[in-house]
Amino acid sequence: MIVRSFFIIFSALICLFNSMAYGDIGADDIKARVNVFMDDHIALLAEDYGDNVRIEYSINNLDSRLAMKDCPDELETELKSRNNIGRVNIRVSCNEQNPWSLYVPVEVDLYRPIVTTLIPVAKGEIISRSVLEMREMDISRLNGTYFTQMDDVTGMQAKRPLRADKPVTANYLEPPLLIRKGEQVQMTARSGGLVVKIAGVALTDGHKGEQISVRNNQSKRVVEARVSGPGQVAIQL
Fold this sequence. Notes:
Elements: H1 2-21, E1 25-26, H2 27-49, E2 54-59, E3 67-68, E4 76-79, E5 86-94, E6 100-117, E7 132-138, E8 157-158, E9 173-174, E10 177-179, E11 184-191, E12 194-202, E13 206-207, E14 211-216, E15 222-229, E16 232-236
Parallel strand pairs: 11-16
Antiparallel strand pairs: 1-3, 2-6, 4-5, 5-6, 6-7, 8-9, 10-13, 11-12, 12-14, 14-15, 15-16
Function: Involved in the assembly process of the P-ring formation. It may associate with FlgF on the rod constituting a structure essential for the P-ring assembly or may act as a modulator protein for the P-ring assembly.
Main location: periplasm
GO cellular component, one term: periplasmic space
């Protein structure tokens, strides 16, 4: 009887020791490991985007009942998303005796000063600095290419209406229309040191750098020319 009691007590101690040595990893442990990873991730983001940024993140709620098998070695963490801001997934894994892994969603918000509209801008309007302002905004879920310098936007033409207090993105802009269909233009042809200038009429609208059709006023011949400035086109000889 004494031997049997001793065996039962000894077995219980062994189980207790094992549970202490290899206890379950809970939600708080996982969250703590993700926090360590995110500290490094934010430091890298600050290097990529510059000093004039503000970065915040929040870890989605984990089930308090979460219990993963203990890992003899340190847990591994890595970013498992195409993007590094916005909604990202962090994989936490143990690659030892009994491997396991889980994914933790994290919301990463990155704020920086970008060009925004101060007032509404109509389609076709040439954008001036007076309708723009720099404002700190969260770019993590911003669609399209944004701008950090007003000079990159000033002088561009609104391709579509822009609402007030909104980020200005590249898909809303286009180079200003320099030539309109039916407008008289000057065609310039160069060949070595020879320069010939001929009057013509534009048959299509044209932005800077675009190729348009132009009719020679004298010969009535239609040629292709590249828009070089307001009322100016260049012909390749």
